[in-house]
Amino acid sequence: MKVAVTNYGGYLVGAWVPDKVGKLISVAVGFDTIEGLLNQTNYYGATIGRYGNRIAKGKFTLAGREYNLHINNGLNSLHGGKKSFSHVVWNGNQIDQQKVELTYLSNDMEEGFPGNLTVKVTYGLTDDNAVEISYEATTDKATVVNLTNHTYFNLNGEGSGDILDHEVQIAADSYTPVDYTMIPTGKIEPVKGTPFDFIHPKTIGRSINADDEQVKFGGGYDHNFVFNPHDIHTPVAKVTGDKSDIVMEVYTDEPGMQFYSGNFMLGTNTIRGGKRDIKRTAFAMETQHFPDSPNQPHFPSTTLKPGEGYRSTTIYKFSVWEFKLS
Question: Is the pTM of this model over 0.90?
Fold first, then answer.
């Protein structure tokens, strides 16, 4: 397996995984040139911060003070605002052939967020074909932090067609429904009996066009799944490419994950190999705390205070599906 990373935006530029016949398949959407990264707005492979996902109306109150953020997604702030972590140059250090460390100082009030936030993101590639992403952060003033990675995957190969026949399983009995602006309503509801039930494996396309208000709000899947109790050693999601038999398992210590089915890929970008980023030709699994948590106190807290340390790890582990007789 091979992985490429750039210190511009902390992007995972590409990932190449052996398929069932040992051929390396490019499973992460990327670009042939840096210009492609600079000109796209879909966050393909980006490190997301300070706050992954949406904050309602671009504002929150912390320690009695209201903070206003850049509005860049309808009525809301998305993925850290206009100049998020995906639009800055990080300090990069390649530790060895299997590890890259990126650091960045986000200044007090950058994009409206309080505190000087010192961030470190480490990409590691293990001997058993797992991409391990570790996040660390400290602050000198109370702030909110929710870091994630926004790689889009197609396990049959980027640009090879839609991902509707990929099989998905997510260890989440619940999810957070949203309003029409894609902000959580505050409820945590069961997935059973809804299109969001991936407790047992099913294809992405099976319920993606269901006559369901939540599906219609997102134009497909673009929702936060609330994981069942787990630890970093237990997979919380599993995806299998229907043509390549490549399997991706997700491990994380985060409480949730945004499962996004590429609904707003518009074919406006030329991705690697001269192909276009057509609708639903890739998916993202963004491990996270919940969207709009700073405004929803009953959600897991995203507040980071001086003297505390933010730490989070997510692993994308790749293998090949094998049929076994019982």
Answer: yes
